[in-house]
Write a structure and sequence with these properties.
By secondary structure, the protein is an alpha/beta fold. Helix content is about 25%, strand content about 20%. The protein has 6 helices and 8 strands. It has a 6-stranded mixed sheet with strand order 4-3-5-6-7-8. Strands 1-2 form a two-stranded antiparallel sheet. The radius of gyration is 15 Å and the shape is globular.
Length: about 160
Amino acid sequence: MFFTAGPTLPVVTEPIWPQNSDISLLIRTDYSHPQEWTRMKAAIAEPQTDDGFLPNVELLDDRAFEGFPLSRLLDTAPETPWHPVAFLVDTLSLTHPELPILAINLNNDDEEEDEPGEGSPFGATFRVVPSELWSVQNNLSIANMNWEEFAETVDQDGIFRGFP
């Protein structure tokens, strides 16, 4: 991947998105909390089920993406290959005790619904604890579940901690 330095954000000149739509992008945007980042990576890599499920994510860990905003991520989302979800590890992710990762809906469900206004809009977000990242990523990437099933289950603080 090549990019050139802009005033404050990288200018991406090659695709950052995995060519396999079963793999989701996880972008680190905060570099001021290295110990928490190490803890988060370990938590993501730890199987959370008896079947050993793990999230299929490609970590984009490059200082050029420090402070990379959600709006910029949405601008770069490809139409093909289709990616239903991406993840950002921002300052809140690394300063909150539970390390909740920002999940971003990249599917424009509204276009697929029978009634306009149904479904979750492109760019909708919630946070997910690392131990449940596999559930969100795996199920959304194979369309086994939809965004609303997760979004409707977040706690009052906007964090998905698993199904009751």
